[in-house]
Amino acid sequence: MRVVLLGAPGAGKGTQAQVLVERLGFIHIATGEILRAAVREQSPLGIQVQAMMASGQLVPDRLMIALVEERLQQAGDRPCLLDGFPRTLAQAEALTQAGIKLDQVVHLAVPEAVLIRRLSGRRVHRPSGRLYHIDYQPPRVADRDDITGEPLNTRPDDDEATIRQRLMIYQAQTVPLIAYYQQQALQGRTRYVALEANQPAVAVSAQLLALFPQQTA
Ligand code: AP5
Description:
By secondary structure, the chain is of the alpha/beta class. It has 10 helices and 7 strands. The strands form 2 sheets. A 5-stranded parallel sheet has the order 2-3-1-4-7, with helices on both faces. It has a two-stranded antiparallel ribbon with strand order 5-6. Strand 5 and strand 6 form a beta hairpin. Helix 1 packs across helix 9 and helix 2 packs across helix 3. The two termini are about 15 Å apart. The site of BIS(adenosine)-5'-pentaphosphate (AP5) has 37 residues, from helix 1, helix 2, helix 3, helix 6 and strand 6.
Protein backbone atom coordinates (compact mmCIF):
# COMPACT_ATOMS: atom_id res chain seq x y z
CA MET A 1 0.00 0.00 0.00
CA ARG A 2 1.47 3.33 -1.09
CA VAL A 3 -0.41 6.54 -0.34
CA VAL A 4 0.43 10.14 -1.31
CA LEU A 5 -0.75 13.14 0.70
CA LEU A 6 -0.88 16.06 -1.71
CA GLY A 7 -1.57 19.60 -0.56
CA ALA A 8 -0.29 23.12 -0.14
CA PRO A 9 2.03 24.20 2.67
CA GLY A 10 -0.19 24.22 5.75
CA ALA A 11 -2.88 21.96 4.26
CA GLY A 12 -2.36 19.56 7.17
CA LYS A 13 -0.25 16.83 5.52
CA GLY A 14 2.00 16.38 8.55
CA THR A 15 -0.91 16.56 11.00
CA GLN A 16 -2.88 13.90 9.14
CA ALA A 17 0.20 11.76 8.50
CA GLN A 18 0.68 11.45 12.28
CA VAL A 19 -2.86 10.01 12.53
CA LEU A 20 -2.34 7.52 9.70
CA VAL A 21 0.98 6.41 11.17
CA GLU A 22 -0.45 5.96 14.69
CA ARG A 23 -3.74 4.36 13.65
CA LEU A 24 -2.75 2.34 10.60
CA GLY A 25 0.98 1.79 10.98
CA PHE A 26 2.11 3.51 7.80
CA ILE A 27 5.81 4.24 7.37
CA HIS A 28 5.97 8.02 7.08
CA ILE A 29 8.23 9.30 4.30
CA ALA A 30 8.09 13.06 4.85
CA THR A 31 10.61 14.72 2.58
CA GLY A 32 10.54 18.06 4.44
CA GLU A 33 11.27 16.27 7.74
CA ILE A 34 14.10 14.24 6.19
CA LEU A 35 15.66 17.42 4.80
CA ARG A 36 15.26 19.36 8.08
CA ALA A 37 16.99 16.50 9.94
CA ALA A 38 19.84 16.67 7.41
CA VAL A 39 20.14 20.43 7.98
CA ARG A 40 20.20 19.97 11.78
CA GLU A 41 22.95 17.33 11.43
CA GLN A 42 24.79 19.52 8.89
CA SER A 43 25.29 16.45 6.68
CA PRO A 44 26.52 17.08 3.11
CA LEU A 45 22.86 16.97 1.93
CA GLY A 46 21.81 19.34 4.72
CA ILE A 47 24.51 21.87 3.88
CA GLN A 48 23.51 21.71 0.21
CA VAL A 49 19.78 22.32 0.81
CA GLN A 50 19.78 24.66 3.83
CA ALA A 51 19.57 27.97 1.97
CA MET A 52 17.02 26.67 -0.54
CA MET A 53 14.68 25.53 2.22
CA ALA A 54 15.07 28.68 4.29
CA SER A 55 14.03 30.78 1.28
CA GLY A 56 11.10 28.51 0.40
CA GLN A 57 12.63 27.17 -2.84
CA LEU A 58 12.27 23.55 -3.89
CA VAL A 59 15.24 21.21 -3.65
CA PRO A 60 16.35 19.87 -7.09
CA ASP A 61 14.30 16.96 -8.41
CA ARG A 62 17.24 14.60 -8.89
CA LEU A 63 18.18 14.81 -5.18
CA MET A 64 14.59 14.28 -4.06
CA ILE A 65 13.90 11.39 -6.43
CA ALA A 66 17.03 9.49 -5.32
CA LEU A 67 16.19 10.10 -1.66
CA VAL A 68 12.59 8.86 -1.92
CA GLU A 69 13.40 5.85 -4.09
CA GLU A 70 15.95 4.78 -1.48
CA ARG A 71 13.39 5.13 1.36
CA LEU A 72 10.77 3.18 -0.59
CA GLN A 73 13.25 0.42 -1.26
CA GLN A 74 14.13 0.22 2.45
CA ALA A 75 10.41 -0.01 3.31
CA GLY A 76 9.93 -3.04 1.04
CA ASP A 77 6.35 -4.33 1.23
CA ARG A 78 5.33 -2.31 4.28
CA PRO A 79 2.64 0.37 3.78
CA CYS A 80 4.15 3.79 3.05
CA LEU A 81 2.79 7.29 3.28
CA LEU A 82 4.47 9.89 1.07
CA ASP A 83 4.12 13.40 2.57
CA GLY A 84 5.59 16.25 0.52
CA PHE A 85 6.60 14.07 -2.43
CA PRO A 86 5.99 14.19 -5.32
CA ARG A 87 5.60 17.95 -5.67
CA THR A 88 6.67 18.47 -9.29
CA LEU A 89 5.64 16.70 -12.48
CA ALA A 90 9.20 15.43 -12.89
CA GLN A 91 9.02 13.78 -9.45
CA ALA A 92 5.64 12.21 -10.23
CA GLU A 93 6.84 10.92 -13.57
CA ALA A 94 9.99 9.47 -11.97
CA LEU A 95 7.79 7.36 -9.66
CA THR A 96 5.67 6.20 -12.60
CA GLN A 97 8.74 5.40 -14.68
CA ALA A 98 10.32 3.46 -11.81
CA GLY A 99 7.18 1.28 -11.81
CA ILE A 100 6.20 2.42 -8.30
CA LYS A 101 2.43 2.00 -8.08
CA LEU A 102 0.51 4.44 -5.91
CA ASP A 103 -2.67 2.96 -4.45
CA GLN A 104 -4.24 6.23 -3.30
CA VAL A 105 -3.54 9.92 -3.86
CA VAL A 106 -5.30 12.20 -1.38
CA HIS A 107 -5.49 15.93 -2.05
CA LEU A 108 -6.10 18.02 1.09
CA ALA A 109 -7.88 21.12 -0.24
CA VAL A 110 -7.68 24.33 1.84
CA PRO A 111 -8.16 28.01 0.78
CA GLU A 112 -5.05 30.18 0.71
CA ALA A 113 -6.07 32.64 3.46
CA VAL A 114 -6.53 29.71 5.85
CA LEU A 115 -3.12 28.29 4.91
CA ILE A 116 -1.39 31.55 5.87
CA ARG A 117 -3.12 31.59 9.29
CA ARG A 118 -2.20 27.97 9.90
CA LEU A 119 1.48 28.39 8.99
CA SER A 120 1.91 31.68 10.87
CA GLY A 121 0.65 30.05 14.08
CA ARG A 122 2.41 26.70 13.75
CA ARG A 123 4.68 25.50 16.56
CA VAL A 124 6.81 22.35 16.37
CA HIS A 125 8.47 20.09 18.91
CA ARG A 126 11.63 19.45 16.92
CA PRO A 127 12.86 16.17 18.48
CA SER A 128 9.53 14.35 17.92
CA GLY A 129 7.98 16.37 15.05
CA ARG A 130 4.79 16.89 17.13
CA LEU A 131 2.76 19.75 15.68
CA TYR A 132 0.78 22.47 17.41
CA HIS A 133 -1.02 25.67 16.48
CA ILE A 134 -1.29 28.62 18.83
CA ASP A 135 -5.08 28.86 18.24
CA TYR A 136 -6.29 25.62 16.59
CA GLN A 137 -4.20 23.04 18.45
CA PRO A 138 -2.57 24.81 21.39
CA PRO A 139 -0.24 22.99 23.76
CA ARG A 140 -1.50 22.54 27.33
CA VAL A 141 1.23 24.92 28.56
CA ALA A 142 2.10 27.82 26.23
CA ASP A 143 5.16 27.11 24.05
CA ARG A 144 5.85 23.73 25.73
CA ASP A 145 5.52 20.22 24.31
CA ASP A 146 2.66 18.29 25.98
CA ILE A 147 4.69 15.11 26.46
CA THR A 148 8.20 16.26 27.36
CA GLY A 149 7.61 19.84 28.51
CA GLU A 150 10.44 20.92 26.20
CA PRO A 151 10.20 24.26 24.36
CA LEU A 152 8.40 24.51 21.02
CA ASN A 153 9.88 26.21 17.97
CA THR A 154 8.74 28.01 14.85
CA ARG A 155 10.01 26.81 11.48
CA PRO A 156 12.46 29.20 9.75
CA ASP A 157 10.38 29.05 6.55
CA ASP A 158 7.16 30.07 8.36
CA ASP A 159 7.72 33.85 8.20
CA GLU A 160 5.15 35.62 6.09
CA ALA A 161 7.35 36.46 3.07
CA THR A 162 8.62 32.88 2.81
CA ILE A 163 5.11 31.46 3.27
CA ARG A 164 3.95 33.54 0.27
CA GLN A 165 6.91 32.33 -1.77
CA ARG A 166 6.13 28.68 -0.89
CA LEU A 167 2.48 29.17 -1.83
CA MET A 168 3.50 30.65 -5.20
CA ILE A 169 5.77 27.69 -5.89
CA TYR A 170 2.98 25.32 -4.86
CA GLN A 171 0.64 26.92 -7.42
CA ALA A 172 3.22 26.78 -10.21
CA GLN A 173 4.88 23.42 -9.58
CA THR A 174 2.58 21.20 -7.51
CA VAL A 175 -0.98 22.11 -8.54
CA PRO A 176 -0.40 20.48 -11.99
CA LEU A 177 -0.10 17.15 -10.13
CA ILE A 178 -3.82 17.28 -9.36
CA ALA A 179 -4.68 16.95 -13.07
CA TYR A 180 -1.86 14.41 -13.50
CA TYR A 181 -3.26 12.08 -10.83
CA GLN A 182 -6.87 12.64 -11.90
CA GLN A 183 -5.77 11.42 -15.33
CA GLN A 184 -3.87 8.46 -13.84
CA ALA A 185 -7.00 7.56 -11.88
CA LEU A 186 -9.12 7.66 -15.04
CA GLN A 187 -6.66 5.19 -16.58
CA GLY A 188 -7.05 2.90 -13.53
CA ARG A 189 -3.46 3.39 -12.36
CA THR A 190 -4.30 4.87 -8.96
CA ARG A 191 -7.21 6.21 -6.92
CA TYR A 192 -7.51 9.97 -6.48
CA VAL A 193 -9.68 11.85 -4.01
CA ALA A 194 -9.85 15.50 -2.92
CA LEU A 195 -10.90 16.00 0.71
CA GLU A 196 -12.42 19.20 2.07
CA ALA A 197 -9.61 19.92 4.55
CA ASN A 198 -10.77 23.34 5.76
CA GLN A 199 -12.37 21.67 8.77
CA PRO A 200 -11.13 20.78 12.24
CA ALA A 201 -8.28 18.28 12.07
CA VAL A 202 -10.38 15.48 13.63
CA ALA A 203 -13.03 15.88 10.91
CA VAL A 204 -10.35 15.62 8.22
CA SER A 205 -8.91 12.53 9.93
CA ALA A 206 -12.32 10.87 9.93
CA GLN A 207 -12.66 11.38 6.15
CA LEU A 208 -9.13 10.11 5.62
CA LEU A 209 -9.48 7.00 7.79
CA ALA A 210 -12.71 6.14 5.97
CA LEU A 211 -10.62 5.69 2.81
CA PHE A 212 -8.87 2.69 4.39
CA PRO A 213 -11.67 0.56 5.90
CA GLN A 214 -9.74 -2.72 5.69
CA GLN A 215 -6.74 -1.33 7.54
CA THR A 216 -8.96 0.41 10.13
CA ALA A 217 -11.06 -2.71 10.90
P1 AP5 B 1 7.57 20.38 3.81
O1 AP5 B 1 8.05 20.12 5.17
O2 AP5 B 1 7.01 19.25 3.00
O3 AP5 B 1 6.57 21.59 3.92
P2 AP5 B 1 5.24 21.98 3.15
O4 AP5 B 1 4.81 21.15 2.01
O5 AP5 B 1 5.42 23.43 2.91
O6 AP5 B 1 4.14 21.64 4.18
P3 AP5 B 1 4.11 22.03 5.66
O7 AP5 B 1 4.92 21.06 6.47
O8 AP5 B 1 4.44 23.48 5.84
O9 AP5 B 1 2.55 21.89 5.96
P4 AP5 B 1 1.63 20.63 6.22
O10 AP5 B 1 0.69 20.46 5.08
O11 AP5 B 1 2.42 19.44 6.65
O12 AP5 B 1 0.78 21.22 7.44
P5 AP5 B 1 0.85 20.86 9.00
O13 AP5 B 1 0.19 19.54 9.24
O14 AP5 B 1 2.21 21.09 9.55
O15 AP5 B 1 8.73 21.00 2.92
C1 AP5 B 1 9.57 22.02 3.41
C2 AP5 B 1 10.61 22.39 2.37
O16 AP5 B 1 11.43 21.22 2.06
C3 AP5 B 1 10.08 22.82 0.99
O17 AP5 B 1 9.75 24.20 0.98
C4 AP5 B 1 11.27 22.51 0.10
O18 AP5 B 1 12.29 23.43 0.25
C5 AP5 B 1 11.76 21.18 0.66
N1 AP5 B 1 11.10 20.01 0.07
C6 AP5 B 1 10.36 19.09 0.73
N2 AP5 B 1 9.91 18.14 -0.10
C7 AP5 B 1 10.38 18.46 -1.34
C8 AP5 B 1 10.23 17.87 -2.62
N3 AP5 B 1 9.53 16.75 -2.81
N4 AP5 B 1 10.85 18.48 -3.66
C9 AP5 B 1 11.58 19.61 -3.49
N5 AP5 B 1 11.74 20.23 -2.31
C10 AP5 B 1 11.15 19.66 -1.22
O19 AP5 B 1 -0.16 21.99 9.58
C11 AP5 B 1 0.21 23.36 9.56
C12 AP5 B 1 -0.38 24.03 10.82
O20 AP5 B 1 -1.81 24.00 10.73
C13 AP5 B 1 -0.03 23.35 12.14
O21 AP5 B 1 0.16 24.32 13.11
C14 AP5 B 1 -1.26 22.47 12.46
O22 AP5 B 1 -1.44 22.32 13.86
C15 AP5 B 1 -2.38 23.30 11.84
N6 AP5 B 1 -3.46 22.46 11.29
C16 AP5 B 1 -3.33 21.32 10.58
N7 AP5 B 1 -4.54 20.84 10.21
C17 AP5 B 1 -5.45 21.74 10.71
C18 AP5 B 1 -6.88 21.82 10.65
N8 AP5 B 1 -7.62 20.89 10.01
N9 AP5 B 1 -7.49 22.86 11.25
C19 AP5 B 1 -6.76 23.81 11.89
N10 AP5 B 1 -5.41 23.80 11.98
C20 AP5 B 1 -4.76 22.77 11.39
